[in-house]
Specification:
The protein is an alpha/beta fold. It contains 13 helices and 8 strands.
Amino acid sequence: MKTAAKILAAIVSVLVLLAVAAVASSWEPERPLAELKARWAPPPSTFVQVQGMEVHLRDEGPRDDPVPIVLLHGTSSSLHTWDGWSEALKSSRRVIRFDLPGIGLTGAPPDADYRIERYVRFVAAVLDRLGVARVVLAGNSFGGQVAWETALAYPGRVEKLILVDAAGYPFQPLSVPLGFRIARIPLLNRVAEYTLPRRLIEASVRNVYGDPDKVTAQLVDRYFELTLRDGNRRALVERFRQAPAGIHPERIPMLKVPTLILWGGQDRLLPPADAQKFQRDIAGSRLIVFERLGHVPQEEDPGATVAAVKSFIS
């Protein structure tokens, strides 16, 4: 018995050492905003004070545009996901995009409030800060939910709505990026606040692309480094806890704004069935599915997706 106990103790010790070694090898401390700005916030990026946060923002195109286009990114993303759309639209339209609280370079909100209602008020506050009264509002994934919730809360401010693989219905994924799964697991998500293997980020980004071969090293760098912005990992855990998916689907049929729904046919996080639900529930809405694209079609193929947008807003 003593021999068996010694063997078991030795095995446990080895497993503990291996676990410690695994954590140590993937240890990634938080990075301050100043360290990340040079690479990820060159001009035309600016930072504006809104609700106690230094909001990372890009505001391009003609200032006399009476109805600017506002673009909201999704979970663990950033305003950079809209680079292609902005480039295609800014010659004729004012295009505004910014990092949402707890994501990208904006950083965590001082009140640690990550409810959907808080994000809606934040969007309105940014528009107030910029002096913008009425917009075409587009959002991808979580940003899509913030967009349609904003259209309901402030109907006079949203002229048209564009939902790109938007959240809103009960979560029924075919596949979930590993990073998102970890963020939902108690205890493990706390460890993940201090560790972040780059290969985990790469696997997660590849998971949401229709064609994983389009995922470049620079793209992985962007997702990886912006996730390390101080406070962002804790914010992800808190947002999943405070704003669970599919909490207000009964509100979607209340939308009366002209709506374009764009979806990736290969989206396994929010499957195309959700796109059909949006089209069913929003009277008069138009749905376009890009069969070969994934969860971030505006990033994976900006040319094809923005062409549909131009037709809708012209």
